[in-house]
Amino acid sequence: MTSEPSVTRVGINAIGRRHQERSRDGDTGILIEGTSVRTANVTSERKRILTGIRPTGPLHLGHYAGALENWVKLQSEYDCYFLIADYQVSEYAHDLARVRNAVWEVTLDWLAAGLDPDSGSFVVESLVPEHAELTTWLAWVLPVGMLERNPTLKAEMEALEYPTDGKTKEKAVPVAFYIYPVMQVANILLPRANLVPVGADQLPHIELARETARRFNRAFKPIFPEPEALVGRVPRLVGTDGNAKMSKSRGNTIDLKDSAETVAKKVRTMYGGPPRRATEPGKVEENPIFAYLEAFDRDTARVRDLKEHYERKGVSNKELRNRLTSVLNELLEPMRQRRAKYEGNMPLVREALEHGTGRGRAIAKETMAMVRDALNLNYLR
Ligand code: ATP
Ligand code: MG
Question: Whose CA is nearest to atom 20 of ligand 1?
């Protein structure tokens, strides 16, 4: 993928009302180098994207800057499958009500952020059971050692077993958690995706998908493109507590659906670097408020000035917080308005899931027929 996706796009929503979207300027992201696609079966259609999110709660600024923003930009150029990965919520097995609710929350957040369900397909993973089927076959070709070495998986398991926040109880790691990377590989390979736009934490998983595609294609038939990862403008957004990653499980998020007041409060109380008087110079990289301004303030010249002042003479955190609050509310306000519109029309939201899942199922069946053929599994034919 070398061409810049357009920054202006026009979508038609499911009730046929045209609406214009302007997405934010800036880089598309960092393309992770990969070898060329080699497959005999991907035909002349648009190239495909598969990407997804687990339904475990509302989406936050990390999801947006790391992934979602790119999805919005790319949706008119690619045939997109946006997955709600409910098979992969094993650590929430005790709280399925939360998962059920989050399926709707995620869909609303997607619509609010500007994904167009007519252009891309919103797919619920478990309503396409071919995901589970392909996971089983792919488990044949993926060595356990590769899972054990996967740094993201290791970190997530450790966080489950040995939580560090003092509040969360430690949990045993369910088997489903151990195999979810295989399922993620199946998610990517099932629509025979070419590109996977994700945050940096997902890169080890994409590498697994590439390796699995290579192994399968070599051992059986060349069905699968080797998918490439596309990391968003902000590969890993810090949390409001200063932790390296904004994450639901750490409670350090600013959510896309947060009200203007909530955003103001979260920014007012977020970590602002080591204690410092307003007139005392500070180090930009020690203050996460700057990480957010860099990520979201479109007035880059102003951010540059603020940084310079901060390092030379000092700038009060109050001033930085005020600026950040207005920048974030400017970004989120149109999303809140779109969300409200869809919340008032839930049949339309349901329709988005139903249609998208139908499209996801169709391509899944096509791929599974190819896989069965490649493995020569059609015993009764
Ligand atoms: P969380 O990490 O908040 O607990 P999750 O693990 O359920 O959420 P995923 O489904 O793993 O969410 O993430 C969805 C997408 O958002 C992935 O592509 C992931 O890389 C990206 N993402 C999540 N958090 C961040 C972040 N803080 N910065 C950049 N990208 C992120
Ligand atoms: Mg995650």
Answer: 199
